[in-house]
């Protein structure tokens, strides 16, 4: 089939490459021309897709990157994988709308359009379908097929990839569901049919809401345990020995990436806007997790004052990690970036080291690209804050040479000069 994947980011590029490897003729539509040119040259900016894998589908002519909408003509299946960010703390569906308008012009009878972008229940039916019908002059469910299949991409996760992660599929009609499922059966091992579009949309935002709420719970527990003088990390290890009724979540400097800081807001905002009801647990979790970077800064400030009788202002601080999770360059909504920005605003002299991020990524300055703890003189800093525990960081060297470490991820052994969050 001729497959068009609109948006070639963390979600779209892996899907496009996988579809090409499965034998489809794939058009990767990317309106950002610089990105498009990089892809055409065989240079991947998405870690989960290596250059060799990208070049392989390019060389076989199974994949073609373009920023020209005319190349969408004649598609059998088009998948929309564009961002759905927050603007002024409200859902922003402008990319979905813009892409829907572009795509509508090229819909032919019998074609299938699938939305993968995470959003609130009702988006596919109430927002996307009218745009597609208006632009094409066709009727969804009769002349062409429409579906929703939530992305489940976890950047940097080598165990759970696109092809072996169960894929939820939904359709506007039973016929639409059959077409959507038939496509994803060719690129994933397991497809899970949903009874309707809204159920599939709700399942996606609930998956991340579940994580968001539980992370907020352990972040709050961490603060209370510190006040009580109790080791929260050992407490969580003890609780995790229960073989039923408990799932282990860990505290940290906050939540990051596209999903956790954003997806629950889509659900709570939609419920409030449509029905005037407040999803209180989501809003409370949001408050806790958004305040976690400030808590990290306060802990560091307290340690400097208590141990060295000095303030954050003028202190030399080494921040390890800027990505939101280890093993990836993804700095979207990264709490590590928020921590370093707050420290700089307070007058600290902060050096950030991240082996995955270039100097200008994520709003961070002074990032030695490819550097590890061995690349800096750890003992020359007043304090070290470990924000993202990349495997490239030498924790033994850090423990041996640092004057003080605040470990926000609980990966180091507690010592007189090492505190865990």
Radius of gyration based on Cα positions:
23 Å
Overall 3D form: globular
Strand proportion:
5-15%
Measured as a percent range, the helix fraction is 25-40%
Instruction: Sketch the topology as an H/E string, one letter per element.
Output: EHEHHEEEEHEHEEHEHHHHEHEEHEE
- Spatial order of the strands forming the largest sheet: 3-2-1-4-7-8-9-10
How far apart are the termini? Answer: 52 Å
The description of the largest β-sheet is: 8 strands, mixed
Structural class: alpha/beta
Please tally the helical runs, counting DSSP H or I stretches of 4 or more residues. 12
Low-pLDDT segments, ≥5 res: 359-369
- Mean pLDDT rating: 91
In total, the number of strands is: 15
Explain this structure to me?
- With 421 residues, the protein is an alpha/beta fold.
- Helix content is 39%, strand content 14%.
- It has twelve helices and 15 strands.
- The strands form three sheets. The protein has an eight-stranded mixed β-sheet with strand order 3-2-1-4-7-8-9-10, sandwiched between helices. Strands 12-11-13-14-15 form a five-stranded parallel β-sheet, covered by helices on one side.
- Helix 4 (94-104) packs parallel to helix 5 (123-136).
- Mean pLDDT is 91; it is low at 359-369.
